[in-house]
Design goal:
This protein is mainly alpha-helical. Helices cover 86% and strands 0% of the residues.
């Protein structure tokens, strides 16, 4: 049952992200506003869900799993990246937290470029 709920909530997150991206294209064709909105809204929702479930016990663990791993996992992984970085920073792991923020950004750009380069070599 847990896997079914994760799958369904993941599908819902995917559809919400798609809808947001389509609406963003309509409003701002020259800027990735849909991605920006998904990432920022994802951070807001992740923080809200985490605080309500972890710190205040208002959401059962099963709901947190479905909402954060299923829905939010499909809606945006940016919020998870921010959560992980924040956790490191709050635990006093300044180098790890900042390294995670900067390192993933730089590595992502480099690997994206590598993917393009590899694809051009194959085409």
């Amino acid at each position: 049952m847990k896997l079914l709920l994760l799958g369904l909530s993941g599908a819902a997150g995917t559809l919400c992200r798609y809808g947001l991206a389509r609406a963003g294209q309509h409003w701002f064709a020259s800027f990735a506003i849909g991605t920006l909105l998904a990432n920022l809204l994802g951070c807001l929702l992740f923080g809200l869900i985490w605080e309500l479930s972890q710190e205040h016990g208002l959401l059962p663990l099963e709901y947190r799993l479905v909402l954060l791993t299923g829905f939010m996992g499909a809606f945006t992984t940016f919020s998870t990246w921010i959560f992980d970085s924040r956790t490191m920073l709050l635990e006093g792991q300044l180098l790890a937290g900042l390294g995670n923020l900067v390192g993933q950004s730089v590595a992502g750009l480099l690997l994206f470029g590598l993917g393009i380069w590899l694809a051009r070599g194959l085409a």
